[in-house]
Design goal:
three-stranded antiparallel beta sheet; about 625 residues; three-stranded mixed beta sheet; mainly alpha; single chain
Amino acid sequence: MGVSGFQVPQVLGVETSSNFLLTCRYQYQVNLGSGINIGSRLHLKLAFSFLLSEVLGSGIAVMFVVKSSFAPNPSNQYFSGNEDTGIIRNTANFHPSIWGDHFISNPPSDMMNRAYSLEQVEDLKKEVRRMLVVDANEFLNKKLSLIDLLQRLGVAYHFEGEMEKALEQIYNASDYGFDDDDNYNLYTVALQFRLLRQQGYNVPCDVFNRFKSSDGKFKEDLINDVRGLLCLYEATHLRVHGEDILDEALDFTTTRLKYVFVTDDLKPHHPLATQVMHALRQPLHKVFPARVEARRYISVYQEDNTKNEYVLKLAKLDFNLLQSIYLQELSQLSIWWKELGIAQKLPYARDRMVECYFLMLGLYFEPHYALARKIVTKTSALLTIVDDTYDAYGNLQELQLFTDAIESWDLGSIDQLPEYMKVLYSALLYVYSETEEELKKEGRSYRVNYAKEVMKAQVRSYLKEAKWFNKGYIPTFEEYMQNASKSSAVTMVILNSLLGMGDVVTKEVLDWVMNERNKLLNASSLITRLMDDMVTNKAEQERGHVCSAIECYIKQYGVSEQEVHDEFSRRVVDAWKDINEECLKPTDVPMPVLLRCVNLTRIVDTIYKDKDSFTLAHEVLKEPITSLLFDPILMSY
């Protein structure tokens, strides 16, 4: 005797002491022996408690208690039917988007004020350009300070030509412009070194020997020069391998700045105290995003008694103008994302389109990169869904089918996929086709072929990790990291970030990105993978996840978790040195291309510093996104 077609009621909010937990999101089918078929449409988290209630013909007694984790959507065609019969889903329960339809409901509208601000910006740019070209020629330290100020306030992109010319002149001067005059203080030397290194000029680090005493150590009286110490601290983050003096300088300045900060030498309200505290946590070379940093520094600089009113006003107007541009872009992207409907159809994945856009502003914030931002935001939002499909939802058979479909890149392959994967696959093909059509107008559609190949490599790396997890296999650390060079998605994001850029991106540049021996991208991938694993390992292993670099390293070398963290931190430091080295002239590709790679690493360094800020966006990213996109800077005319 059996029971067939019994519908499990949806009892919401019931607590139970379950014997086991089953997580799934589609039609679930339970087979309890011959003739017993209990089916229920589940878009829920189910807690099954098997209790003796009545004896069925098969001798099995069953009672179901159902607890909802999010509301079902019976009208959604992709979450109905019996397709997932018997499949247990290992879901992660990511929090939903915290933004709703905000960017659709509140598009920017003050076009008249924007036009007026643009006119003001152009007038101020003329005055600042005059200062940069004429006034600054009188004194080197004045020129350096002005360049530094423009960069910190986020308006340097208006004066790239003038700044490049000025720094090139300094580099070509005798001794790279470093004066032996005793008045050439630590602040000026360190600032000059950092600005030249940022621009790709390989100036020697032995210039700092002048600040050492006869015992080979940095002079202790430098502790009285907090401004100079801070500038030297910032300069050390541009170091490359073999520059021991800069390693020493980093230790020296970090220790002394921490000492000064915790004593009463710097009052809490003093501008330098704020800068020291901020720099110790996030040095300039690793700051993300540039616009949030610009806003922060505007608030610091406006309290400076020696501030330049022209530059300050330009920075404020420019920030507000760009904010209105970003809101317009994000409004259009939000409409696209909602019409695509993928977040609603696939709620197991992270809905992070707004956060993707915010991160991509870290790649390039300048207005002329609008098309590039749009393309990489779309592909990154979809990649997040793909990642979660492999990582936290699909079973191995489904993932193999999806990988095969991506490899074929043919809409005809969609028939072999389960219903929910059809949604994702069709969305991917549509977005790449749309991008191809857009780039065709400028004769650049060939770039999309590279993007497709990178996506194929990406899903292959995801599938390999899924197979490892399915088998309970822990690879060697080297094997894990070899696959991580792809699964980290660094190559994919960089490639996609170049699709919408201008003539600076050539076939040779794209071939450079695709080169598996690319030292810069390999260093960025290492930083991404190790920093990610260090902050996400515990949570991911608790919910069931492929082994991380930490497990691989512990198994292979028999060390403690703390020792692993210390080793990984050292490797991250060395990888940054690789990145700095690859950005010194002469370079393999143009500096704007290299800057995208550096900026992506800056993003990673920030979002994985303490926790997985992207996944836990509601805890970490809400504040900086609000600061950048919601709140304009008040102007005093």
